[in-house]
Design goal:
single chain; alpha+beta
Length: about 250
């Protein structure tokens, strides 16, 4: 079981792992010829994280077949946060443990034990069929979620293919973000029909931290249907989230 990797782009790795840790407390990373990544659901099965760093993200990348690396995310994040932008990170599997080395003026080494956990069944997110797609600036989505949080604990995403809206409604207050086609903040918008769905803000707040990886985010959703948020760090890595809708029931 061989896995070795070296990373000089510390911020990409650190930002991705810390964002994932907002939702997932433990998971099984997989290293394959196609890259290093993780697909995992949160404990409530409300959201799914789909992350991968492609081989070209690394200075060096060596793996034999598929290697599974089950880790405690909190412990991993505590270590990764100790890295500075000047460090180079080396990852290596040794004796059923992950050795993490920071090299700069000094050499600092940490060892994480692999967990004994089984793979959980992940919702089949690749089978989702979305009706609408919007690509917007990540900072605009982040601010829209912050605005909505002032008003309510959920936010509505709506589009008719011409206008994109985020709406939050409280007992007496409301907020609305509107982006029209042609706006500098709205990079792409398409929809097969009028779509509208409500999602919990506490999850979206955590997911939108993916803005650190990409200046833009692509949203895919449908009426009362899961939403997918896609952050892509050029052609080096991607961090996607799928979130279940909050469907309001009438009394």
């Amino acid at each position: 079981m061989t896995f070795k990797a070296k990373i000089s782009d510390v911020s990409l790795f650190k930002d991705a792992i810390t964002t994932i840790g907002e939702l997932i407390d433990e998971g099984i990373f997989k290293a394959t010829k196609d890259g290093f990544g993780l697909i995992a659901a949160d404990r409530a099965m409300v959201s799914v994280v789909d992350f991968k760093m492609l081989p070209l993200s690394f200075d060096e990348y060596t793996v034999e077949d598929e290697v599974k690396i089950p880790l405690n995310l909190s412990n991993l994040i505590s270590i990764i946060k100790r890295a500075t932008s000047r460090d180079k990170i080396a990852l290596e599997l040794k004796d059923n443990k992950l050795e993490i080395t920071f090299r700069n003026a000094s050499v600092r080494r940490f060892v994480l034990p692999l967990l004994d956990i089984s793979e959980e069944e992940i919702p089949p997110i690749e089978q989702l069929e979305f009706k609408a797609k919007a690509s917007i600036k990540s900072s605009v989505l982040r601010d829209g979620i912050k605005d909505a949080e002032v008003i309510a604990d959920s936010v509505i995403f709506e589009t008719d293919g011409k206008i994109f809206k985020m709406i939050a409604e409280g007992d007496i207050s409301s907020s609305e973000l509107v982006l029209e086609k042609g706006s500098d903040a709205l990079l792409e918008l398409s929809s097969a029909e009028h779509v509208k769905a409500r999602y919990p803000i506490d999850y979206l707040k955590k997911m939108v931290k993916g803005y650190k990886l990409s200046e833009s985010v692509t949203l895919r959703w449908a009426t009362d249907y899961p939403i997918k948020l896609e952050f892509k760090a050029l052609d080096r890595a991607y961090l996607n989230f799928v979130l279940a809708p909050r469907v309001e029931t009438e009394d």
